[in-house]
Amino acid sequence: MNPRFWTVKTKFSVAFSSLALLTMVVALLALQALSEANQNLVHFVDGINARATLAEKVRTAVDRRAIAVRNLVLVTSPADLEKEKGALTSAHADVKAWLTELQAAAESTEAAADARNLVTSIADVERRYGPVATDIVALALQNKKDVAVRKMNDECRPLLAELTETTRQYSELTRARSRQMIEQAAQAYVYRRNMLIAASMVAIFLAVLMGWLIARGLTRSLGAEPAQLGDVAQQIAQGNLSPELLRHQAPEGSVQASLNAMLQSLASVVHEVRKNADGIAGGSTEIANGNADLSQRTEQQASALQETAASMEQLSTTVRQNADNAKQVNQLALGASQVATKGGGSVQEVVNAMQDISESSRQIGEIVGVIDGIAFQTNILALNAAVEAARAGEQGKGFAVVAGEVRNLAQRSAQAAREIKQLIATSTTRVKQGTELADQAGATMAQVLQSIQRVTDLMGEISSASDEQSAGVAQVGKAVSQMDQVTQQNAALVEESAAAAASLRTQAQQLVQAVSIFQLGGQAAQPASTPPLSQPTVQARNPAPAKAALPARQAARPVLRPVSPVSPAHKQAQAQEQDDWVSF
């Protein structure tokens, strides 16, 4: 991948990772040098220096013991003898102890072979020197000082000199080894120092190189100094989009070039937004004014529909009353028809009774005729009996009287029969007249019954038509109520639309104000002047007289909010549209 196309994050990551790696290498080298120096120091302190110290302690203890042996030979007082004897014992114990530690150190550490040989020599001389010193001490304690002095001069001094020489050689050896280790440490220090200096120089060179490369890459990527870019961004944030901010020498693909492109694009967008915002503000104002006027007319239409609904309710009530009256009249007509039917039946019964009476009168007349005939025959018989009685003379005188009485009775019966016949004839004539009148009354009642039946049918049709008319008026009232509700809803929607248009107008004005902070070509964008929003006055609707009977419907209707009056300028601007809105 070409480093030119690396991101800033990648460049800084690579640079600091490289610096961290170089620092780690230098630190590792330093740690290694310190570790080696520490190991050399530990080796010196725990090895050569410790053994040299033990050798010096052994030599010191040997000297103390030799002095104690000499003093034992020279002193004479018992107290001094005891004192020197104690010093001898202590020195001899120290020699043994320090020599043992020296031998152990020479065997356990990485001591050289010559050093171990010298330690072995010291131990061998000590092993030979110990018995001699003991014998000298014993001779001194036995007060054989001359023998002790000779033994000390002959045997002890050579061994002591040999022991001293051996310890001196060991000391010289340890000092030589110490100097050698110091020289090695100095050489290692110089080598590590030069390596660290070289590594540090390389790290500094690489750090400077990478810093220069990153700075050059960032400068090319930015296209200008960060302060200049910040100034341009601050100017853009303050709304200055003038072409003077453009830097035409910015490298391609740099932040400055992108800022130039963004500035040009933003200036074009702001110009278009400002122009469109002005149009939106004007259009939203017209929409808001139109919606306000529509709201007013919708309110008027809603008021007219409420009054129409009230009138339809009154008409429906009147039609229902007419239908109820028609039903009552129909019921009365049905009752009259039933009564007329019963009257016709009664007249028919009267006619039948009159016919029966006429028949009975005829029969009575016939019977009276028979009686009249019988009376006539009886009268003839009585007359014949009277004639015969007259012929009989005195014998027939009583029979003549009876016959006269019978004749009288026959005449009276005939007279009564004639009167009855006359009465029956008169009654028959009247019965006949009554029958004719009854027939006429029956025909009249039949005509009345037909008329009543026709009236009943007509009233049934009127009642049915009134019911249908009442149902139709109810449906019309329901439809008008629904239209009223829909109109109320439309009015609410128109008000909401007017509110939304007003909100749109406000937002458009806010957008114009927001865009006005930008400066295009050195001049600030002026907010477009929008005509004031006019809202019509919604008059409080006076309820129709019939609305008192409809409290539930009035309570169910939504209450419409009044708005501010319509401006005269807006009324003049919309005078040409009045006809269309009235037709709506």
What are the key terms here?
2 domains, MCP_chemotaxis, Methyl-accepting chemotaxis protein-1, serine sensor receptor, 10 helices, Helix Hairpins, mainly alpha, disordered C terminus, 584 residues, Four Helix Bundle (Hemerythrin (Met), subunit A), Chemotax_Me-accpt_rcpt, transmembrane, two-stranded antiparallel ribbon, transmembrane helix
Describe the structure.
With 584 residues, this protein is an all-alpha fold. The chain has two domains: 3-222, Four Helix Bundle (Hemerythrin (Met), subunit A) (Up-down Bundle), CATH 1.20.120.1730; 259-538, Methyl-accepting chemotaxis protein (Helix Hairpins, Orthogonal Bundle). It contains ten helices and two strands, in the order αααααααββααα. Strands 1-2 form a two-stranded antiparallel ribbon. The protein is elongated. The protein starts with 7 loop residues before the first helix and ends with a helix. Residues 523-530 and 535-584 have low confidence and may be disordered. Keywords: Membrane, Methylation, Receptor, Transducer, Transmembrane, Transmembrane helix. Residues 538-569 have a biased composition (Low complexity).
